[in-house]
Amino acid sequence: MNAFKVGFQGESGSYSEASARIQYPDPNYSFIPFRSFRELFEGVENSTLDLAVVPIENSTEGSVNETYDLLVEKPLYVIGEIYHKIHHCLIIDKNSSPDEISIVYSHPQALAQCRKYMQKKHLESIPMYDTAGSVKFIKETHNARAAAIASKHAAQIYDMKVVEEDIEDNSNNFTRFLIISKIYDGNADDNKTSVIFSIPHTPGSLYSILQEFALRNINLTKIESRPTKNIPWEYYFFVDLEGNVNNEKISASLLSVKTATIFFKLLGSYKKAEIR
After folding, report:
1. N or C: which end of the chain has fewer CB within 10 A?
2. How buried is residue 213: exposed, middle or buried, by Cβ count under 10 Å (0-12/13-18/19+)?
3. Which residues are catalytic?
4. What is the pLDDT of residues 136-166, one digit of tens each?
């Protein structure tokens, strides 16, 4: 039997991989790293992968913009979500001394989540494509002045030393991940729906869209805007709402929204994740 293939962005030991493995503990699943989000999405699109786990937003530092942009571009669906609590560590080579550290490598989101810590330690931040990838990088380069911010598990994978744990500025630090797939099979117990739309640049156009949900007493849990990149100052709106697309009230509201927009995409309905 062929292994079920789950992709994630970054190296082994990344938070994306950790979230994927918790969600899919079945030993028949294989987990495949991709250096970039685009390569990851294309892996799902061309069926190299069965699905992928991608970060969409962090509770303290906000949205992962590239994920939003690729959700517009690629013909893929959202079939689930995961909330993963983030604990960052300062990690160095086993032959390095903490007193020698002056620069820190990590993903820009992780660096931002540890900004106060680095300022207090007078450390220079250098962005990398991935948290675990930054640990791998300082191991391979043997830079005695360099540290990485990543998970404790990443330090264990690459046989590195943890200088300090839980260095994030906010202890209530969660990242929300989406599970994306080329195939959409809705379930009756799905209770959250995500859509994307763009609207005419006219007075009241957004109000009229939001009114479709309000009049039907549908709760919106998130609304996010991103530039369309085609026309200056025009935007895509990403909306999460409570309910299943097969529910009569939800389907009626989405049909009304679709007729009033110049672009509409249903990402899918899925089961709302618990924040643990």
Report:
1. N
2. buried
3. 175, 177
4. 999 999 999 999 999 999 999 999 999 999 9
